[in-house]
Every structure is written in C-alpha cells, then in structure tokens.
Amino acid sequence: MSVSHDLPRGVWALGLVSLFMDMSSELVHSLLPVFMATVLGASMVTIGLIEGMAEATAAVARVFSGTISDHIRKRKALVLIGYGLSALTKPVFPLATTISWVFGARFADRVGKGIRGAPRDALVADIVPPRQRGAAYGLRQALDSVGAFLGPLLALIFMAWFSNDIKAVLWVAVVPAFLAVLVLVAGVTEPPSGEIPRRDSGRLTFTAVANLPGRYWLVVSLGAVFTLARFSEAFLILRAQDLGLALGYIPAILIVMNVVYSSVAYPAGRMADRLSARTLFLAGLGVLIVADGVLALAAQAWMVFPGAALWGLHLALTQGLLSKLVADTAPANLRGTAFGIFHLVSGIALLLASTLAGALWTVLGPPATFTAGAGFAALTAAGLVYFQSSKA
User: Fold this and answer.
1) Taking the model in full, what pTM does it have?
2) What domains, with CATH codes, occur in the chain?
3) How confident is the model at residue 109 (pLDDT cuts 50, 70, 90)?
4) What is the CA 291 to chain-centroid distance, rounded?
5) How far apart are alpha carbons 63 and 333 in whole angstroms?
6) pLDDT at 198
7) Helices 99-127, 44-72: inter-axial angle, 10-degree rounding
C-alpha cells in the first residue's frame, strides 16, 4: 500500500486509533458468533438480531453526537468518550456467562462507536482540504482494516496458544483497545473552534435537516439501499463453521477479508478523488454480487476464503467513497449532523438486513442468505444505472 505523506498528522493519528480499536474489536468479533452459538447456545436468529441491533444502536448514537459536535465545535472530546466507552466494554466479553452479558457489552460497545463515529468522520473533513478527502478517508479505512485483519490474526495465534480456549483469547483484546485511547489523547489535535462554522442549536431540528441539500439525501438513499444488500460479517464466520472449518482457523476468514480491504482502500480513496463515483460504486456492487454467489455455492470450507476476499474488495471500493460523498455534499456547519443521519439510516438498514439474513439462514439454509444479498445488490446496481439513464 503506497501512501502519500502530505496528509495531515491528525489523519494518520486517527487512522492509528482506528487500527488499534479495530484490532481489539475484530479479535472479539472473529470469535463472538461461534462463542454465542456454541458456548452460550444462541440461535442464528438471535445472533443476527444482536448484530443488527448493535449496529443500529451505534447509528442512533451517531446522530446525537454529530449534532452536538456541530454545536460545540469540539469534536475530539466526543471521539475520546466514544473510544473510551468501547475500551471499557472489552473485559466484559470474556467474563460473559449468558447471552444477556454479550448483548449488554455489544450494546455499550456500539454506543461508544456511535458516539465517536460522526464527530471523527467530520473531524477528518475539518482537517484536510476537499481535494484530499478521498485519500484521507481511504487512508483511515485502510489503517482501520489493517487492525481488522491483525485482530483475527491474533485470535488465530492465541487460539492455538490457549488450546481453543475462547474466553482466554478474548482477554487479549483489552490491550489494543486501551492503546487506541492513548494514541487519540496524544496524537490528535483538532482545528481551532473558530475555523468550524457554528450551528445555532445543539438539537437535531427540522430546520437543520431541511438545510441539508438534495444531493446529500441522494447519497443517504444510496447508502441505505446498498446496506440492505449486505449484512454483518458474522455470517461469513458462521458460513465457514457451517462448512466444517476447524474452530481454531475461523478467525482466518476475517484476516483474508481485511487484508484485501486494507490493501485496496487507500488506492480506491485516491481514485475517488479523480474518477466517477458512480463507476466505482457499480464496481463495488458487482464484486459484492460475485462474493455472495461464491458464498452461496460454496460446498467446502476453503471456498469461503475467496468469498471473504471478494467481500473485502467490495468494502474497499465503497466505504471510503460513501464517506467522501457525505463530506462533499454536506455544509461545513452541518457536517457532524450529516454523518450522523447517514449512519443512522444505514444502521437501520443493517438491522433489517442482518435480521433477515438470520431468518433466511434458519428457514431456508445458508445459501439463501447469500443469494438474497446478491439479489439486493443487483437491484441496487440496476437502480443506479436506471437513475443515471433517466437523468441523461
């Protein structure tokens, strides 16, 4: 991954914060679905519901934190609260004895993610010029994804070290979580508050929402429909287990996915500064359709690995691009609010997608889950092509 060194120091620091926290979170998440299913006896519907509700909770929290950050023009404090809360939840997972413990910890962790998400994304836009936004979001996503494959890699190593003792391995996640908080405190300096236009109110009002332009709402709509086409990565892990992959090798699925994601995210972000957003988005949807097809047709455990790699490629092509589009279409004084609303709508869509995925898995089997995902992706691509054609 070749990167430009002219991006501000704060972007690199925020990227490293994301790296450490994702290392911690993905170590947990690479084992949590199997932990819930085998140790705690949770059903597929319950797992899908927990994953979807956790992400939807984060989305709701983002709206309020984004709006508050627009009002007070101090984004770092909210980012610190969010990362700090997530760090504090990490010891709860290895201590869990019932599914309610896991639900509570996931809920609190996602509240932390929600509190930090919109202010952090807005802070990136505050500290870089518009011409570098695609690169900046791509770099942050790339470093985030490095952490996201280091976490499962640590899980893989320590599962072997601790003889598949999942609870013992979950304790390892505590260390990088607190490192993330330390890097944030020491390495991130936000612009002076006077450089950020101020909102008149710290509340999410109809007037504030009405001031967001039509182009922004198109991005929100596109993000929501796209999110319906994908669901929690927990189902990749469950698919590998369903096909007989040994418990100790389960984290390798997320390693493969995130190696691809981290390798492509920054180049894709650079391309987003130069190429048509529609072209990149259609490419991402095409890759998602192929990934879902591979995962639906998989007959042996090894076939999940190319499916996971393609899943990581579609994330790299689309996630940084969506953040750039939100930043480009939102007024500076409503940037936190805009990211909050975007993540709220996407979170609700993810709740629906993950719940549906769990239900399809239970009633019709794993292939139906991924076939439905491919169908939603194809509909999204067709709608995007139709919308562009109708404008011509």
Assistant:
1) 0.66
2) 9-192+211-391 (1.20.1250.20)
3) confident
4) 18
5) 14
6) 53
7) 40
